Amino acid sequence: MKTLTLHIPDTVDISNRDLAMLVSTRLYEQGILSLGQAAEVAGLSKRTFAELLGRYNVSIFNFPASDLSRDVANA
């Protein structure tokens, strides 16, 4: 796993844990990370990460609406 060092202004009041959660939720939302990978980046279990996604306005159902339409059509 890669290690990243960020320089954040002292005026930004955010914990390392919250920052890891912000990064991991965004990468999950974009489909770059799987749920398990994003949970690992955030330092959480998959279950806990999934439960917290709503706080960041990210759906656990991380697939395009077009996939849902296709699935419904094929049902």
Order of helices and strands: HHHH
Number of strands: 0
Biggest sheet character: none
Low-confidence stretches: none
Shape: elongated
Helix content: 40-55%
How many helices? Answer: 4
The secondary structure category is: mainly alpha
Radius of gyration: 15 Å
How far from one another are the termini? Answer: 40 Å
Strand content: under 5%
- Mean pLDDT value: 87
Characteristics of this structure?
elongated; mainly alpha; 52% helix; 4 helices
Explain this structure to me?
The structure is a single chain. By secondary structure, the protein is an all-alpha fold. Helices cover 52% and strands 0% of the residues. The chain is built from 4 helices and no strands. Helix 1 (16-29) runs antiparallel to helix 2 and helix 2 (35-42) packs across helix 3. The longest helix is centred in the first third of the chain and has 14 residues, at 16-29. It is elongated. The mean pLDDT is 87.
Task: Please give a quick description of this structure.
The chain is built from four helices and no strands. The protein has 75 residues and is mainly alpha-helical.
Write the layout of secondary structure elements.
Elements: H1 16-29, H2 35-42, H3 46-52, H4 65-74
Helix pairs in contact: 1-2, 2-3
